[in-house]
Amino acid sequence: MSKEERDRKRKNKKRLRLILIFFILAYLIFRTVPTFYATTFKTTLAEEGELEDVVKAEGVVIKKEDVYKSEGNGKISTYYKEGDRAGAGKKIASISLTDDKSALEEELKEINVKIENLKKADKEGKSLKTDKKEVKENLSETIELLQDKISKEDFEDVSLVKENIYLNMGKNTDVSGENTLLKQSLDNLNKRKAELIKEISDNTINYFSKESGIVSFDSDGLEDIYSAENLDNYTLDKFERVNLKEKKIKNNDKVETGDFIFKIIYNFEWYIGCIVDDSKKIESLETGNTVEITANDGKDRIKGKVEKIEKKDGKALLILKFNSFFQDFYNKRYIDINIVKAKYEGIKVPLKSICDVDGLKGIYIKDISGIIRFRPVIILGHNDEYAIIQEGDGNNYIKLKDGDETRKTVGLFDEIIINGDSVKEGQIVD
Predict the structure, then answer these.
(1) 284 has pLDDT over 90
(2) Of 16, 182, 266, 313, whose CA is between 20 and 30 Å from 383?
(3) Which of 357, 337, 352, 347 is nearest to 411 (CA)?
(4) Which sign does the torsion angle of CA 226, 242, 329, 296 carry?
(5) What is the value of pTM for the model shown?
(6) CA triplet 388, 390, 396: central angle to 5 degrees?
(7) CA separation, residue 403 to residues 23, 361, 397, 407 (Å)
(8) Banded model confidence at residue 65, pLDDT cuts 50, 70, 90
(9) What span, in angstroms and rounded, lies between the C-alpha atoms of 361 and 359?
């Protein structure tokens, strides 16, 4: 072999080694860069859970309310507390009209004192009549004794008996005339007392409940607008938010003619109405369906029925009927509610971890070897943050809806890539 051939072979071998080294380095870089990239992704574990499919809305509390207004100018007196329940025919409040009646009240006090004094004198007069009878009996006995002493000529005791006669005669005073005047005075005073009471009561207006219910001294000014008696008239076009005109009445407040003073709220049936911006969100609901709502940040959970649904231009008016928990809502008008359409149980995953690959919904997970794998899922339901996906069989396989094909899905405690759209299958994670 010539020197030129040997040089050419050495150059070829050197070239092959360089090419081999280049491919090895390229492979290592290819495998290493995705590893560094993928290790920055956040993950979470798939766990069992439950989720409610809800529609959020602002609800309007609709009630049957009887509003009572002042029939004159004056000062109000209340006989029930806010939120108390009162039966029909109960005295709820009264208004003392502003006409000055202080002189009448002062005269009434004076007459009551005089009547008490005369009653006391009358009692003493009756006691005096009893004493008069006893005096007459004693006087008769004393005269008989005096006659006996004189007949026996026992003159030493005669003077003593005479003194006793004079003493009893002094007590024998006729009080019948005085008692007659006292009775006349009492009659006149009682007559004047009745007149004064009538004059004072004529200066007061009393208010009684027409039917039983919850007493409220708070008004929002919307009792006539959002009334249970207007349910048939509510439409999407007319059901609008109206600003509150709140007024609170307290004992001894001054009121004028026509002012709100209190209301009685019928508490056996009440309603919540709301506008749903997207009617598709409640397309599964029909009139008569039983639904559940949560309110007050989930503290209250109440079951009711769909009373009315009206859909128009992609929106919907929904009116729900309730017959419990009214005590928690009697003094509210606008509340934030969640209408619970359905409940789901299964594997709970972050909603943003679900992505679409070739028209198939699924989630990327990191398997035990650290490689990113795509797992198809069947979504049962979701809210704004989470989704419930169907659990697979014992080997985590599910049957896809289209066709008879089975695929391995996400299993319990699989490590899920939260931002699924940012990874690809085959990437390596430490």
Answers:
(1) no
(2) 313
(3) 347
(4) positive
(5) 0.62
(6) 130
(7) 43, 15, 14, 11
(8) very high
(9) 7
